[in-house]
């Protein structure tokens, strides 16, 4: 009888397939060597108990994203003050830069690429919702502000991808793990 839960060879011994990078395949749950004896002993493993301590690390990683979202919300809904610099369309540049930083901060808060894409879509929808409710706060609703926000998120995603690729190359060069 073949147990499909455990592979027949030790995947963790192959450097080209580091299992620790995949959260769906935690190494602490599986034995280091996958011999038939280990498979026999693990046919009916003991039920794992849940850790009663809350996991605060993921929450702490999301805190900067939440605080930055509150800052963006406040700055977008507060009444605009007097114009200090009279450069045409400077507000579009401000929107663009703020949402570029928003997308880069979001990359720190999530752990997978799929979650990052979902968060970036949520940021674009968040900016659209802000633009729609701005008239009730005495501000102007502008499609071009939303477009600048969306382009800023796109640039933030691009910058994040570049930074990740550079980090990955450096870690590969130094034989380090990205964990």
TrEMBL record:
It comes from Photobacterium rosenbergii. Keywords: Membrane, Transmembrane, Transmembrane helix. The keyword Transmembrane applies. Coiled coil: none annotated. InterPro entries: VanZ-like. This is VanZ family protein. It holds the Pfam family VanZ. Residues 87-163 form the VanZ-like domain. The chain crosses the membrane at residues 63-81, 93-110, 115-134, 146-164. The keyword Cytoplasm does not apply.
